[in-house]
Amino acid sequence: MAGSAIKRKLESSGHTNLIYRSHAELDLTNQEEVTAFFEKERPEYVFLAAAKVGGILANSTYPAEFIYQNLMIEANVIHAAYKNGVKKLLFLGSSCIYPKLAPQPLKEEYLLTGELEETNEAYAIAKIAGIRLCKHYNQQYGTNFISVMPTNLYGPNDNFDLQTSHVMPALMRKFHEAKIKNEHQVIVWGTGKPRREFLHVDDMADACIYLMENWTYNDIEEFVNIGVGKDLTICELAKLMADIVGYKGTILFDTTKPDGTPQKRLDVSKLHGLGWDARISLRDGIVQTYEWYLENVQTK
Predict the structure, then answer these.
(1) CATH of 2-159+197-230+265-282 among 3.40.50.12240, 3.40.1190.20, 3.40.50.720, 3.40.50.970
(2) Which of 54, 138, 235, 265 is most exposed by smallest CB count within 10 Å?
(3) Helices marked H in the chain — which ranges?
(4) What are the b/e assignments for 21-58, b being 16+ CB within 10 Å?
(5) Which residues are paired to 45 by β-bridges?
(6) pLDDT digits (tens, 9 = 90+) for 168-218
(7) Cβ within 8 Å of residue 107, ≥6 positions away
């Protein structure tokens, strides 16, 4: 989702010399393949958006895969970028890097100041390692590798598999299928009380390209948050999703399921200081995403 959004934005901005590969064409966890790719293609600028991602269920079920695959992807690409003289690299992290009970909103300096949320600890540790890889390669080798921490993303090309998806696409699919099947209730995991912030993936892509074009590692320092600085409860999100999808039934919360981190609202004052602000409202973004879902992935 993130990579395809960056590609769309680059193409719409007139960039034509784009180099990319599918998972089938290039295994980023394989160091030999990554090394050969960089030596052949010699990219000047790299957006490292590739990652193994998923929601609470996937993170809790496959923690070894989440930490291993993400560590390998980051290490292979960042090292190959250094070895092949890449001018600039942008690494995409995740807001789950912050401590579970960090003060709100989450400031960049809160990194590594407390314990992580247990349900996504493996993924968070891998992403923290990616940030520190960029930091230490910059310090030792003089590279210009910058890191950004997007909040929860949604939009076209999201993962709508109920076993591995995040909350936004999961709710969209649940409410849509309940509507077409005339089901009287939809069950949502947890209490509905946790608060989450959401950023449309096209806004994320715009921010990444803006930072790549205008700011260096010395300007950004270790990393910068990318978000909207506003959040809502999962209960509020569920009601908004039901309204947009047109579902009229009852919403039930399964309190036997985990809530995850109580709140993850990013402080985006640093990003605003660098001259960028989000443009797509949450409601408009969900409407656009639901239209895309109906055209591309809805189950018949």
Answers:
(1) 3.40.50.720
(2) 235
(3) 2-12, 31-41, 56-61, 63-83, 121-141, 167-180, 201-214, 217-220, 234-245, 269-273, 282-296
(4) eeeeeebbbeeebbeebbeeeebebbbbbbbbbbbbbb
(5) 88
(6) 999 999 999 999 999 999 999 999 999 999 999 999 999 999 999 999 999
(7) 225, 267
Chain centroid offset of residue 195 CA: 17
- Backbone torsion region of residue 192, taken as left when φ is above 0, otherwise alpha when ψ lies between -120 and 50, otherwise beta: left
- Give the integer Cα–Cα distance in Å for 287 and 289: 5
Q: Within 10 A of 146 (CB to CB), how many other CB atoms are there?
A: 25
The DSSP line for 243-275 is HHHT--SEEEEETTS---SSB-PBP-HHHHHTT
Which residue is it, tokens 């230490």?
Answer: 136
Is the pTM above the cut of 0.70? yes
Half-sphere exposure of 98 toward its Cβ, with a 13 Å CA cutoff? Answer: 26
Taking the domains of the chain in order of start, what are their residue ranges?
2-159+197-230+265-282
Could you give phi then psi for residue 109, rounded to 5 degrees? -75, -5
Please list the active-site residues.
123
Q: Which residue has the tokens 């390209």?
A: 209
pLDDT tens figures, 50-101? 999 887 788 888 999 999 999 999 999 999 999 999 999 999 998 889 998 9
